[in-house]
Design a protein that fits this description.
Layout (H helix, E strand, L loop, with lengths): L1 H13 L3 H16 L4 H4 L3 H14 L8 H7 L1 H4 L1
Length: about 80
């Protein structure tokens, strides 16, 4: 872990890309402040029901579309 920290420090110290530094800061503070279950708890009941319904749909393999079928359906945009 020390090697990763050292490399990260070097990268941060040598960059002048303010956007990159802001992104790194947001990632690290977001991870630091994350509380287990906060995303789920922040959803409305309707949103939670939609997630659960989607999860059930994923388990129904008969509703799946193959990669080949999707390529056929979307061929006009894939050229």
């Amino acid at each position: 872990m020390e090697a990763i920290k050292e490399e990260l420090h070097k990268l941060i110290d040598t960059t002048n890309d303010e956007k990159l530094l802001e992104d790194i800061f947001m990632i690290l503070t977001g991870r630091r402040d994350y509380k287990e279950g906060s995303l789920w708890n922040g959803l409305s009941e309707e949103q939670k029901q939609e997630v659960l319904a989607s999860e059930n749909e994923i388990g129904d393999e008969s509703a799946w579309t193959s990669h080949e079928e999707m390529k056929r359906r979307n061929s006009k945009w894939l050229k």
